[in-house]
Amino acid sequence: xxxxxxxxxxxxxxxxxxxxxxxxxxxxxxxxxxxxxxxxxxxxxxxxxxxxxxxxxxxxxxxxxxxxxxxxxxxxxxxxxxxxxxxxxxxxxxxxxxxxxxxxxxxxxxxxxxxxxxxxxxxxxxxxxxxxxxxxxxxxxxxxxxxxxxxxxxxxxxxxxxxxxxxxxxxxxxxxxxxxxxxxxxxxxxxxxxxxxxxxxxxxxxxxxxxxxxxxxxxxxxxxxxxxxxxxxxxxxxxxxxxxxxxxxxxxxxxxxxxxxxxxxxxxxxxxxxxxxxxxxxxxxxxxxxxxxxxxxxxxxxxxxxxxxxxxxxxxxxxxxxxxxxxxxxxxxxxxxxxxxxxxxxxxxxxxxxxxxxxxxxxxxxxxxxxxxxxxxxxxxxxxxxxxxxxxxxxxxxxxxxxxxxxxxxxxxxxxxxxxxxxxxxxxxxxxxxxxxxxxxxxxxxxxx
Length: 449
Ligand SMILES: [Zn+2]
What we know:
Layout: E1 3-6, E2 18-21, E3 26-29, E4 57-59, H1 65-68, H2 73-76, E5 82-86, H3 87-111, H4 119-126, E6 129-132, E7 137-139, E8 145-150, E9 158-164, E10 167-171, E11 190-199, H5 210-226, E12 230-234, H6 240-253, E13 262-264, H7 267-278, H8 286-294, E14 303-305, H9 309-314, E15 322-326, H10 336-343, E16 350-353, H11 362-367, E17 372-375, E18 378-381, E19 385-388, H12 398-405, E20 408-417, H13 421-433, E21 438-439, E22 446-448
Parallel strand pairs: 3-4, 4-5, 5-6, 10-11, 11-20, 12-15, 12-16, 13-14, 13-15, 16-19, 20-21
Antiparallel strand pairs: 1-2, 1-22, 2-3, 7-8, 8-9, 9-10, 17-18
Helix pairs in contact: 3-7
The structure holds zinc ion.
């Protein structure tokens, strides 16, 4: 009988890490970073709580650091197996690690705590990478196997079907929003499942519809132009940035907003957008594939890329109205920090929050209405307009999660992970209404199927 031990994302959204032990194989699903007030929390520095040498293979659902940020540690701790993920995930993972090391180096200046790992460590891990395709059967022993399915969350993201000791387990990874603008919609579950490990990031929330989302976004941009202000968009480099670029491209093309200076001020997001351009086969329909051939979804009049610090400094000199897209999405590191410090104290400006803000992050504090916020060791007044659009989230809301779960023929057990406690409790209650029982595992807890 397979057993699963939960080593992260238990009643919180970061640190996803699950160890599955079967009779013939042991696999690790995800190996994520614990994040919060600081980019990397102190507990990431502890040795991984299991013998890495005993793990045969690692399966990675998607590239986000809360699912992959501790992976470079495992080789130093004795792992020698394979790391399976889709090709875009492997490429994105490298880009995200490189950026993470830079952010941790900046934290080192502030806190004196060394980065969690070096570029050399990430290079060592790369040797174990093995690219997979959606739907491909990956043998893990004579009888056990894994299959990656499109989860519709970010480019290359998967939910993983794992058949161990004859039992079928599904690890949701992160499930995407309904009708994602660029990538394809989440695949259904179809068959009977013995255990579903399900994310609950937005288990207690409903997003705006795509139409409401576009309208809100358009209103925000138009208002910024009227006020001759600056619109700051802290964006996650993967998916959200590309969706925002795509949306702005459409609005300018349709004449809804005039071409204006729009800065993509994130070396990481610029690199990630390049990776998107390499994988049009992951985009959601033929029209877009066609459009991709003729035009560039992610380029349009007014857009300026500022990969270097020198180019980034020019942004300050450009008069408003203007739009600045920069990372990190939770406002706990990256170039957005300097822009927040400069633009938050002015009521003509707008801060548009489009992604999940984890507890204790500056982003969450601003979202919760705090009037002063601590940024780069300074107290900064929040006088700019703050607007949040949940519909840009790459995460399913409650309705989408329920409809995805309902695509399974039958489910034996459900374990809720990757969510705040209140989200899990509310989602668990919703599942009960649908005659499904869910448990909320604790950190280090093991369940047997
Ligand atoms: Zn994710």
